[in-house]
Queue: 3 jobs
Job 1
Amino acid sequence: MSIKIGVIGTGAIGADHARRITKTLTGAEVIALTDVNLAQAEKVKKDLNLDATIYADGHELIAKSGVDAVLVTSWGATHEEYVLAAIKAGKYVFCEKPLATTAQGCQNIVDAEMSAGKRLVQVGFMRPYDSGYKMLKAVIDKGDIGTPLMIHAAHRNQSVGKNYVTAMAIHDTLIHELDVFRWLLDDEYVSAQVIFPRKTPHAHEQLADPQIVLLETKKGVRIDVEVFVNCQYGYDIQCAVVGEEGIANLPEPQAITMRKKAQLGNELLVDWKERFIDSYDVELQDFIKGVQAEQLTGPSSWNGLAAAVSADACVKAQQSGQIEAIELPERPTFYR
Ligand code: NAP
């Protein structure tokens, strides 16, 4: 059965997800689109040659009986209301991160989903679908490096625009690390601290860049993450897990090594869309399969809530300069 999908928000990632559903994945088709900028929705419809209806707003799209499942890829601030509306309509919903912009917003979604009595929400955390992270987790789980003691990680972007301010280093960038380390280590965070090294001249006035985020987990693992969003040289994700008996590194993306102009090397990626392109495909295919089977197994609302609670503590730590506690409520059996 082909799942009929409606897309709310047809900007960068919404258009890209509509493309992958239409051109790459199986089992689903985009039959409805909406965006505050209707011309943008029209453009996506035309570019992908979709047989889709454009709706005036997300609520109208969610209410349509022909729409089986919804993709929420609009601005973060709009996610909560659309996800709650989809749950109320009893429809499956794939929501890009953040699930909601506040921990309370995520809790509202968790509460609504539990009241609905079944999992309806998958959050767009794609790193657990990345083949490199999967290999890293397999090595950790097999015990090849012994018990993990530390993680050294980095999240670097070539540059960001003027609207990217200091807190976004947490809510928009670090959020992926906050999700993936819980999964990698099967552990929860207990505290966060943020340190600001000397500022790069490539960052604008409202942005402290780079930043180092220090996390501690319940099992005592210490994690340092460098977030450097004007690093100039490319888009670069690093993760080294230090265990009792060895170190496991996240593999570099595949690239051709070239001998050229008296140098030996390979090109680095600059676009985040390219770095995790395969994992976006796998995560969305998993969502489609989950809808078909009426059983979602991907990152849940609980993962969205855990990331939001952790992110709030990190932002508090940015502002206070202190070590801040991360206090996640007890995980309900519904999400075990
Ligand atoms: P974007 O290019 O700005 O696209 C967002 C689109 O949503 C824009 O076309 C915007 O319209 C539209 N929009 C805003 N409010 C809306 C509403 N109430 N109803 C319908 N459409 C609305 O942003 P993006 O980069 O695609 O990001 C979208 C979301 O995906 C964000 O939450 C972001 O954090 C997330 N994201 C996740 C990843 C990942 O790696 N998982 C990567 C990128 C983005 P106008 O701009 O025309 O006003």
Job 2
Amino acid sequence: MAVAVNYVLITVFTAVWAMVPAYIPNNAAVLFAGERPLDRGRSWRGERLLGDGKTVRGTAGGFLAGFVAAHLLNGLAPYYAPGFTFAASISLPLGALAGDVAASFVKRRTGRERGEAWPGVDQYDFVLGAWVLALVAAPDWFLSVFTPPVIAAVLVVTPALHLTTNFLAYKLDLKNEPW
Ligand code: CTP
Ligand code: MG
């Protein structure tokens, strides 16, 4: 029993640790958000390409925050936690932001306004983006860290973390919607 609990705790710890550089960017983007939209205000078929919710400063600041976080974690890392290679420290934050941007693109194509909740997609778009880019940019690193149990732990823990941080950001008046 104790061994099983230990195993679950270490797996969840590894999952959250390895995902921090992917968790930070979209939250940091809320803090860094600027005025200039990533799509430069352009529309396609009568709808904004991405919308005013994806800004140049938010994206750049979010990336830097995730990148720095990966290197700070490398400095703190206990022996049982995975370290981040340079490729991982770039692909996780960049992929997380790209996943969120891609979701905005699809939202605008499917009649969803800026800020509208899209349950399921909002909680996983950045996870998928981070994983795909990390798998491409750092395949050996990705496969050694994200074993099937760690992937399962990420899929279970992420929505809870996402809902909690966004609700807190909303309560702190940092974000317009609680999701
Ligand atoms: N943000 C940003 N740049 C990003 C992502 C987010 O500047 N790449 C900022 C924006 O101010 C955005 C806020 O963080 O409004 C919240 O992010 P998010 O919920 O992802 O954007 P939404 O406003 O909901 O827009 P969308 O409907 O396009 O997702
Ligand atoms: Mg939103």
Job 3
Amino acid sequence: MTTRRQALESAMQDTTELLSQKLDELLPAPEGMPEDRLFEAMRYATLSQGKRIRPFLTVKTSELLGVSIGSSIQTAAAIEMIHAYSLVHDDLPALDNDDWRRGAPSCHRKFDEATAILAGDALLTYAFEVIANSRTHVDCAVRLELISAIARTAGFAGMVGGQIIDLNPLHDQPDFAEVVRLQRMKTGALFAMSCEAGAILGKAPQNIRMSLRAYANSIGLAFQIIDDLLDTNGGQENGGKGPRLHAVEQKATLVECLGKDKAQEHAKFLANQAIEHLSAFDKRADLLRELALFILERES
Ligand code: GRG
């Protein structure tokens, strides 16, 4: 008998394969042009082995709302490009200064700093070109709504805003609410967007959109707590990032606020809360429910 976890892992594998094909098709390929190095860096950053959680969220929320896989995988590919850009830039010496990403040298270590900056820029801008394409959705109003929501997510009110707060903490001992706000912007915003994308593509009513965002907010925060717990333990086995104790110690995290045990408990509470947010859906949302539990138990 297939367990829920096996079903989730198999569904995630299917999405990963579809996504890899789509990214390979969309990303520019080196073909003897002066800009080949840029194309290679864009591919290196995007086609490497990530967990592909955000694309999975877009594909599965889309499926719940009857959206075609053609639309959802194209949208998921654009969102993954934005995720890849954020990792490339975050690893740069001016930000986290990480030599490793996804078990391999980070983009600026593999290529060079200037190429990594430009590859990140190109991935971010190309993501919007992909969303604007009619293959994303036939209705241009839907595409415009996606563009607007993704721009808000990636920009000063979301990922970039979260990143600057993370770099320049206001004071030494930020409280729980301040750290939650930071994590919502830095990590949670793209999780929420990945789920909301399905709702936008499916022209879902507001209550469904809100339920999916609430689900994503809860798993996004749980994901970040687990990530910080993994970072606290450090080690090369941690997603190939290598020991990051130095980085964690300087940053405001919920693990720091709550302590390891309470942080773990809070992540569990958030995963259960996420599952409750899916109460409007029948068993077709079971993979999303299982994902909330998977996030709690992940080891990389
Ligand atoms: C705008 C430069 C910039 C950054 C925005 C998202 C972000 C802020 C920085 C990325 C670095 C980082 C460690 C963010 C915390 C969220 C997180 C744990 C990202 C890694 O996500 P995974 O584990 O990565 O899903 P994979 O490699 O599996 O895709």
